[in-house]
Amino acid sequence: IPVSTPSSSSPIDPRGASPARISNRENQILIRDLEMKLQSPSIPASIPAAKVPSYAARFKLSLRNLRKISDPSFLENGTPVIQAPESELLRTSELWKDHVVAHFHEWVLQVGYWQADRCSFSVYPWTADGNLAAQELLFAPTWVVLKNIPPQLYSLDGISVVASGIGDPLHTEKSPLDPYHFGDTKVKVEIDLSKTPPEVVEVRDTQGNSVRVNVEYPSLPPKCLNCGKFCHFMNRCNKAPR
After folding, report:
1. Most exposed among 62, 143, 185, 236, judged by the fewest C-beta atoms under 10 Å?
2. Is the previous residue joined to 198 through a cis bond, with omega within 30 degrees of 0?
3. Is there a cis peptide before residue 176, judged by omega within 30 degrees of 0?
4. pLDDT in tens, 147-184
């Protein structure tokens, strides 16, 4: 911004006092400081990104029929062990209650994480100050098949017990559960991708009895063989050699 130089080296005091005399050099320094202040940017260099809630926290509550029972302990070989509440082994849950399932367009955002074939992506609501930088995938809702579930645990709460040994349970593939099909069931669980998914979960009761449930993962998120991060392949890795 151009600033004109006063014709006099003695600025006028608006209060009528005798003006203080300054040299031309001091006057030039004052003008240069004023120009630098006028040219300094008023917008901050960077805007901190908002904290992104977990997929489990964003998941639509009316679709979530499973819950986190407790955190597992681990055997020496890494097998997770989950303690089943005594009440879940003495009763079976009601498989059907009066309810209404409604689908709105917001469910795309509420699910948050999507995977089509070998391509996975996250969906967030648009904001004017949104962060467009690629975010590392640390947790992901993933389909899990629980094998050989005993009848005593074949209920929504019982399945929640088993799935809690894997991660944060979200919902079953079928709601209500099929009362005539025991054994295997498919559930969606938010898993920690920094840890190796367990292949077996051991459930124990208060009497010391235990049962082992095998776990299968039909489609884990894609993992880059170059950088070891999830959600992209090596041919799309920014750190891959060119």
Report:
1. 236
2. no
3. yes
4. 989 988 989 999 999 999 999 999 998 878 877 777 78
